[in-house]
Amino acid sequence: MSSSRQAADTAADDQNTRPLIMALTRWLAIGLSLFQLYTGIFQLSAMNQRVPHVCVGVVLIFLIYPFRKAGRHHRAGVTSLLIAAAVALIGAYVLLNWFRKVGVAGEALPVHELIMGALLIVLLIEAARRAVGWAFPLVAIGILIYAHFGEFLPDLIAHKNYAWERIIGSMFITTDGIFGMLAGISATFIYLFILFGALLREAGGGDFFINLAYGLLGHVRGGPAKVAVVASSLFGMLSGSGTANVAGTGQITIPLMKKTGYSPTFAGAVETVASAGGLLMPPIMGSAVFIIMQNLGVSYFTIIKAASLTAVLYYLGLFIMIDLEAQKIGLKGIPREEIIPLRETLKDGWHFLIPLAVLIYFIVFAKVSVTRAAFWSCISIPLTTMIRPGRRMTVRQMLKGLESGAYTALPVIVILALAGIVVGMVTLTGLGLMMSSLLIELAHGNLFVLLVLTMVASIILGMGVPPVAAYILLAILVVPALVRMGVYPLAAHLFVFYFSIVAGITPPMAPDAFIAAGISGAPMMKTALTACRLAIVIFILPYIFIYNNALLFMGPWLRIVWSALCALMAVYVLAGCVQNYLGGRLPVFLRLILFISCLALVLPHLYANIAGGLAAGIITFWRLRTPKAVAVEG
After folding, report:
1. Which of 145, 301, 502, 619 is the most exposed place for a label (fewest CB within 10 A)?
2. pTM of the entire structure?
3. What would the DSSP string read from start to end of 114-172?
4. How far apart are CA 82 and CA 61, in angstroms?
5. Which residues contact 14 (CB under 8 A, 6 or more apart)?
6. Is residue 623 in some structural domain?
């Protein structure tokens, strides 16, 4: 047979098998989402819930992510199909045998189970590489090598060697390692919240929230940029990803900002900062919030309450900088006739607010489990669309939302399963305690130096891996050192979580900023640096709440109110200082005084707050009372 004939036959086979593979992938994704909804209302044992969650997720990754290039919806080759089948068989074996293994815990695994365990670890690493790149898989490989060859390392981090049999045995067919706590968090809390966002977007909630932002702020000074802030914060709650947020809302907001007079660099930077903040925004926040909840043993409401003020301050700082930029270059809002009226937007889509209200009700007032609250929130989406006859979700839309939710969750599933191996090995080797002692020694017992080292580590790690993966590593390696230095545990966890998110906008990697620059047509590095300037508040806030827990709504209410007012004023002063504009350009010495006033306002000392507030108030009142400077290009 000629080579051309062989190629033609292969192409014909591909044409015949591709629809079957796509159908298999689609129904597996829908099935996974339905399974997760089922477990949201009917509680299963840990292994019966986690094993299908992890194994079906990994099977889907091999079916839709290619071997060589990051992306989705490729044509799965024979190798990928065989690998997916192997993962499915291993998962089935674990499901059928895990209960029998409970009675023989601690015994060495037979050879065939050691082979299956080793194969699953290798395939997890490959699945993570396909879904999120090399950075986190390399961390997992490194920690496995560290566990096996610990005696050959420097004394500071050395430990006794562990045999491969011991390593594999502690990771496989057990509620530690691959199917451990992190996989449980993914299978209970995180997946349902991702599914909630996917269903709400499919129902049309994404468009509603963007139109709502336009109706609220589109007509005011610098409106398009302020719309980007509100839309991205709302959309970011649904997407759970700063990068996805930029790619989604940025296609709409960035061109509009450019059209109304903002520079391409500033437009891209605004979208970058606004999108990153979506992961900090209650009530949904990012995936890591559920891991914080589990690590600390606190309620979900405790965390969203603690994070609410910092999220408000973050977005307030961005709002003020946008407004000052609009003043500098003399911008106005979008004409009202070009905006869908707010009343019409609410009339057409007010029912999209009900699922969020359902979520808040069940968590705050009914006080049910987060999993149960997420379940009812998901169920409420198609039910509330029935209120609007022309907006009812069709069966096709529901299936598309279930499918989309599964695809969005895949990177999180594989990261948390692989992170279970990392956590298990850190615990086994005692690396966490050694790392904690080493950091304290490097900081010479100085808390501020330790915080700076933690910030740098968080940003560097967050550049290479998603925020949730960066947080997991930092929570086991760095947070214990902060706690040993007297930092309140919740504040320590939020500190590393926030800086893991900031990594998405920080050079030299800054993936969120680079995507925004690609949409705006601006220089990538300049966009990233501008984004860092606009996000200056989030680089300072974590230090503040470490020293002043009142910003996390902890302590007497009088102190909380006073600290919040001082922080609000400090954010305004800092924005004017960074933007070099307060009723006009600022002389250098005034900017210096304003910056010092800002620092005094956020110190946990009453007299410093009063002095900083008086200085900032006098300068602000004087500057805003003087005739406005002629608008110049920013």
Report:
1. 145
2. 0.77
3. HHHHHHHHHHHHHHHHHHH-SHHHHHHHHHHHHHHSGGGS-TTT------HHHHHHHHS
4. 13
5. 75
6. yes
